[in-house]
Specification:
The chain has six helices and six strands; from the N terminus they run H-H-H-E-E-E-H-E-E-H-E-H. By secondary structure, it is an alpha+beta fold. Strand 4 and strand 5 form a beta hairpin.
């Protein structure tokens, strides 16, 4: 029963055109949310290509197999700039996959974001609320993995971050 349920979870996530929450999966499968969380842990430990985001679960590879360009951008800014930063990126058609910080004790810490629109940014900021963002651990320095199917969009995103005065760039 549990292996067929896990297979069904994989099918549902693969076919979805939006992130699916654990609660939605539980309702579809007639089980508790905790069962879904346990199944998801087992699936991911077995190598299933699933990303857990604040908005729900989704496949790590975009549907349709469209060509994507992916890059990691480095920025530094205070909390007050989070909304401007993320909106600048999604307005250009970039998907903000994650946020990454380098912690001196734990090494790389990564949080899944999967933001594609201003509505996603607004939802994320609402969930962030009074909690501290990961970048508080590194004096505002953090990385974002971004992706797009549009050539040139990442360069435009880099320019937008540069105009905001938050892009970290190496020499030359």
């Amino acid at each position: 029963m549990s292996s067929s349920r896990r297979q069904r979870i994989l099918e549902l996530i693969a076919k979805a055109d939006h992130p699916i929450t654990g609660t939605e999966l539980a309702t579809m499968l007639g089980v508790s949310r905790q069962i879904v969380v346990q199944d998801m842990a087992i699936l991911r430990a077995a190598g299933a290509d699933i990303i857990a985001t604040p908005r729900g679960y989704l496949p790590a590879t975009p549907r349709g197999g469209r060509a994507t360009y992916r890059e990691v951008l480095a920025v530094q800014h205070p909390r007050e700039m989070i909304e401007a930063e993320l909106n600048a990126l999604v307005d250009l058609g970039l998907r903000v996959i994650d946020v990454i910080v380098e912690h001196p004790v734990y090494g790389e810490l990564r949080g899944a974001l999967m933001l594609e629109s201003r509505a996603d940014v607004k939802t994320f900021l609402g969930r962030l609320g009074e909690a501290e963002p990961l970048s508080v651990l590194t004096r505002g320095v953090h990385l974002h993995t971004v992706e797009t199917s549009r050539p040139g969009a990442i360069d435009e995103g880099r320019q937008a971050l540069r105009q905001l005065g938050i892009l970290l760039e190496g020499p030359g």
